[in-house]
Amino acid sequence: MREILPGIIVDPEIRGGKPVIKGMRVPVDVLLGKLAGGATYEEMMQEYDLTREQIFAALRYAAAVLSEERVRAIL
């Protein structure tokens, strides 16, 4: 297990190594997809037994990953 950002871990034995919330088996991409689909923080907290800080950790992870992404525009 390796913590790649505070609150986010990767472990080949958990969800095939996908980033998950530390101490949980909830993949970051699932949380982001549900939030993007309109779920509220409160719904996510209840459905997955998460804290608001854990949801923020997933959002910070997504922001960090996207900040490193480079896209070449082809015209």
Polypeptide structure, described:
The chain is α+β, with helices and mostly antiparallel strands and 75 residues long. It has one domain: Arc Repressor Mutant, subunit A (Orthogonal Bundle). The protein is 45% helix and 12% strand. It has a 3-stranded antiparallel β-sheet. A hairpin with a 2-residue loop joins β1 and β2. α1 packs across α3. It is globular and about 45 Å long. The chain starts with a strand and ends in a 7-residue tail after the last helix.
Q: Keyphrases for this structure?
A:
alpha+beta
Kindly summarize this structure in a few lines.
By secondary structure, the chain is of the alpha+beta class.
User: What class do helices, strands and sheet pairing give?
Assistant: alpha+beta
CATH class: Mainly Alpha
Number of domains: 1
> What series of H and E elements makes up the topology?
EEEHHH
Under the CATH scheme, which architecture would be assigned? Answer: Orthogonal Bundle
CATH-defined topology: Arc Repressor Mutant, subunit A
**Main sheet summary:** 3 strands, antiparallel
Q: Enumerate the strands of the largest sheet in spatial order, edge to edge or round the barrel.
A: 1-2-3
Task: Assign the CATH superfamily.
Answer: Winged helix-like DNA-binding domain superfamily/Winged helix DNA-binding domain
Mean pLDDT: 94
Straight-line N-to-C gap: 42 Å
Low-confidence region ranges: none
